[in-house]
Specification:
It is a single chain. The protein is an alpha+beta fold. Helices cover 32% and strands 32% of the residues. The protein has an 8-stranded mixed β-sheet, with helices on both faces. Helix 2 crosses helix 4. 28% of the residues are buried. This is GCN5-related N-acetyltransferase.
């Protein structure tokens, strides 16, 4: 059978499933909506994320996100799935121009799954996937000053703290320092 490039890519990328210890990373599905809202609609989850990750996390926002993710041909954002249910997400954002060999890493996990060691393995698997599939030399992550748990995740995943950008983040009417972590190939 002969596939068009679009059909080939859709078929290939629909098969992405990276197995971890008690979870898998997989592509987004429209059927993830209820779980996405259940775990994302939490101020404790959104407090350390960019303003693009809305709170409250509404059905409309979930539908927009899922429509966007399910129509992409380059899979750079994956679901954290436990027992067939979305419980979080992880993705990279490609930088441009002179930074084109760098990607920014972002992730979140539903509160019931915090403190179980899941995210360190998720980050390691996503980094491996990203370096294997994309022309990157560096993956970088920025962390709010008040989020030491995320700093530990990155450190345990092999990231190196490169510095602190003072007053780089502004959320909820307050400035926060951004701790810059990176891993290079």
């Amino acid at each position: 059978m002969i596939y068009s490039l679009e059909n080939y890519l859709a078929h290939f990328y629909a098969m992405i499933q990276i197995k971890g210890s008690g979870f898998c990373l997989r592509e987004w599905l429209l059927s993830d909506e209820a779980s996405l809202i259940r775990y994302a609609d939490n101020p404790k989850v959104s407090q350390f994320l960019s303003d693009r990750f809305a709170y409250p996390y509404t059905a409309e926002y979930a539908q927009q996100w899922l429509n966007h993710q399910t129509q992409k041909t380059v899979i750079d954002n994956l679901v954290i799935d436990i027992d067939g249910e979305l419980v979080g997400g992880i993705g990279i954002e490609f930088r441009q121009d002179i930074f084109r060999k760098t990607a920014l890493l972002g992730y979140w996990l539903g509160e019931p799954f915090w403190g179980k060691g899941i995210m360190t393995e998720v980050v390691r698997l996503m980094v491996d996937y990203s370096f294997e599939n994309f022309d990157l030399a560096r993956i970088q992550a920025g962390v709010f000053d008040s989020n030491p748990a995320s700093m530990r995740v990155l450190e345990k995943a092999g990231f190196i703290k490169e510095g602190i950008a003072k007053k780089a983040l502004y959320k909820f009417g307050q400035f926060s320092d951004e701790h810059i972590y990176a891993l290079t190939r």
